[in-house]
Structure formats: structure tokens, C-alpha cells
Design a protein that fits this description.
Blueprint lengths: L7 H13 L5 H10 L12 E5 L2 H4 L4 H7 L3 E5 L6 H4 L1 H11 L1
Parallel strand pairs: 1-2
Length: 100
């Protein structure tokens, strides 16, 4: 995972959020995801997934291609990491707005 370049304000927000995060649940969540992988299905409504440059850690291959095959829109923005809204709120908004 890459280390994002955050503004001072974003670093303060991230540190505050990390202080509230239950780190003990991470292992159980990762185990649950590994044992119950998501199987893409065609959605009733148009559905979009926005993937960051760190996407392979969260959405491993071949899931993005499976989503596309099931009719989802998959948007990639490699200039952003997992905490995309902290890294660049404007670019993140443009990605979300385009999917609306």
C-alpha cells in the first residue's frame, strides 16, 4: 500500500478516526471476506465501483473484471489511495458525481 500525501487538516482527521477505529476487528473481517467472497450479480439499478490505486489490496483480481461482466461500471483512479476522500476530495467528488 502506498503512503498518501495528506494535507495537515486531513492528517488530523485521519489520526482522530484511527483513534476511534476498533483494530481488533480487522482480522475477523479479513477472515470473513476470505471465507465468503463476493460473487457479482447483475444489479437492477446502474451500479458503479470506484477503485483507487490501492484497489488490489481491497478488490483483488479477477473481481473487477467479474463486476464488468455482470454489468457494473468499474472506474479506476490510480492517483489516489484507499483514503481517497482525504487525499483529494475534489477528484473523489468528480468520480462519484460522474457515477450519479
Amino acid at each position: 500500500m502506498r503512503t498518501p500525501t495528506l494535507s495537515h487538516e486531513a492528517k488530523v482527521l485521519e489520526n482522530a478516526a484511527q483513534g476511534l477505529w476498533d483494530r481488533g476487528m480487522a482480522l475477523s473481517v479479513l477472515q470473513d471476506v476470505a471465507l465468503h467472497p463476493y460473487r457479482p450479480t447483475r444489479q437492477e439499478a446502474r451500479s458503479t465501483v470506484v477503485l483507487s490505486g490501492d484497489a488490489t489490496y481491497v478488490v483483488p483480481d479477477p473481481l473487477p473484471e467479474q463486476l464488468v461482466a455482470a454489468g457494473w461500471d468499474v472506474v479506476r483512479e490510480d492517483s489516489l489511495g484507499h483514503a481517497m476522500v482525504l487525499e483529494d476530495p475534489w477528484v473523489t467528488w468528480q468520480l462519484v458525481e460522474a457515477a450519479l
